[in-house]
Amino acid sequence: MPRQTQAGRPSRKTPALLRAGGLVLAFAFAFPGIYLTYRAFGEGSDPGNLLFSQRTLAPLWRTLKLAAAVSAGSLVMGTGLAWLTHRTDLPGRRFWRVVLPLPLVYPTFLGAAAFIRTLNPGGLANDMLSGLGVGTTPELRGFFGAWLVLLLMCYPYVYIPVAARLRQLPSSLEESARLLGDSALAAFWRISLPYAATAIGAGTLLVFLYTLSDFGAVQLMRYDTLTRAIATNHLADPPAALALSLMLLVLAAVVVLAERWFSRRLPDGSRASGGQPTTLRLGRWRPLATAAVAVAAFAGVGAPLVALVDWAAGGVARTFGDGRPLTVDYSRVADATLNTLWVSVVAAIVAVAAVLPIAFLVGRYRSRAGWIAHAVVISTFAVPGLLIALSMRFWTLRSDIAFTLFGDTFALLIFAYIVRFGSLAMGVSVVAVRSVPDRLHDSARLLGAGPLRRFFTIDMPLMGPALLAGAGLVLLSVMKELPISLLISPLGFSTLATQIFGSFEDAFVAEAGLMGVTLVAMSFLLTWFLVVRRQEQASGPERR
Fold it and tell me: What does 237-278 look like in DSSP terms, one character per residue?
């Protein structure tokens, strides 16, 4: 009689080859972190003095301060916007539901560039305010600039899961609270907020980790966090860069462990009964709420887009008007676009292929080795891309074999992308594997179909849509990745992200705008199909 799992389903005997492959893949995902730790402590190194020196503790404090501030702001902003657009009678809420997730299409460095340049002398906002008699505009630099940009770019990480959770909130709970005399705001505090606590915690964790790992925005804002200090020292002072990297790695691990401990103590609303959500009336607060949502949407979506279009249009007009050519011609823009597309597609396909064996170990065989590998892959999301790139760069420079096989190759670049974003495909892959009924495999086995035939005729047709969604999430993320693309791309290879960042750093604003519009347009299409449409489909018909 087959052994039973906790779910009551029979556990199959795990193929030895699949188990071995899963453990090898787990080691591959863990390798960058392992190598950084080895380099920091190995070869006679003593990072202790550096870890507790002022040059290390100062950027650590700045990183923690920025991450805490951005997370707190995103928690308030994302939760408030989700409640207003999904649980109240806010005017135009269907429109706002489409617009509010769209800051995801902007890389943070692109948002930072837009705000910096727009407010500077000669920028669009500066010129408009000058026409109104305002002589000076604030210059976004340092902590406030980094905080504002990251807040506006990251709040969707809280908004999206909280909105999904609030859509499931049964109307009976809020109606009971209202019948007992609670106002709309009191019902929010007593009912909606505790119900969405797990989603709020998960989204806030993503924001905290994203802020820890961000490089582009803090670099342009000239705010010295750990990532900027690592990038500054990785060539000039490798021991300092390694000590900073180790501190960032430990910090990310502590955040993940703390979130897991905390999430177990949050109230679980999954057992609540179903029912149509109720719509709460804002009353006299409707104009103020509408203005707040409109300001958030314009600041996070409209303002960066207007700035990019203004830069691009100015560059095109300059080229065809007075004949002054762009420093980056259209052929290089096209090359960077093609590079971005093909490397993102390849990374997405390989990432899904890499996590699929682990998904089978977890979803079909309930293997202990699979759960270990699954935990390793998921934890890599907490490892900043800068650390992965730095680890791979040091590895190829210090190892003759690694340099010969992988130095200055696309294989190394693709591998770094997979380690960074493979976790995005992991969750949907496990769900896809579990969605295939066991009885289909049993029937096919009785009819004589071998493992490969069952995989291609049963598994792939049923798992295809979910795997495609996971690949799309990886693709969208790779398109916007900056540190990995900057540090370990082969010579002569550039993506839109690296070209935009380089153009803005060199003050070629029109070129950055032209490529920025191209990148945002591609990201928008992906975000629309992967996030917005799915969100609207999950919402169902609007309750009248």
Answer: -HHHHHHHHHHHHHHHHHHHHHHHHHHTTS---TTS---PPP
Per residue in 196-255, pLDDT (tens digit) is: 777 788 788 888 888 888 888 898 888 988 888 888 877 777 777 777 888 888 887 787
Higher pLDDT, 398 or 316: 398
Beta carbons within 8 Å of 409's beta carbon, 6+ residues apart: 490
Structure tokens at 371: 């759960």
Q: From residue 46, give the alpha-carbon distance in Å to each of 375, 451, 490.
A: 30, 51, 32
**CB neighbourhood size of 325 (10 A):** 9
Length of the chain: 544
What is the per-residue pLDDT across 293-327, written as a single tens digit (0 to 9) for each?
A: 999 999 888 888 888 887 777 767 766 666 566 66
Q: Do 351 and 474 meet the contact criterion of CB atoms below 8 Å apart? A: yes
Helix or strand holding residue 173 (H, E): helix 171-179
Query: How many angstroms separate the CA atoms of 86 and 2, rounded?
Result: 47
Say how far apart CA 504 and CA 148 lie, in whole Å: 19
The closest of 350, 211, 195 to 274, measured between CA atoms, is: 195
SS3 label, residue 225: coil
pLDDT score, position 5: 46
The rounded distance, in Å, linking the Cα atoms of 402 and 425 is 27
Of 68, 49, 110, 436, which is closest to residue 251 (Cα–Cα)?
Answer: 68
DSSP string, 411-445: HHHHHHHHHHHHHHHHHHHHHHHHTS-HHHHHHHH
Distance from C-alpha of 259 to C-alpha of 129, rounded to nearest angstrom: 44
Distance CA(530)–CA(429), nearest Å, equals 15
- Considering just the CA atoms, what is the radius of gyration of the chain in Å? 25
pLDDT of residue 507: 67
**Can you tell me the distance from the alpha carbon of 23 to that of 372, in angstroms, rounded to the nearest whole number?**
8
Distance CA 309, CA 520 (A): 11
**pLDDT (tens digit per residue) in 519-536:** 888 888 877 776 556 555
- Check if the beta carbon of residue 74 is closer than 8 Å to that of residue 151: yes
Buried b (16+ CB within 10 A) or exposed e, 280-311: bebeeeeeebbebbeebbebbbebbbebbbbb
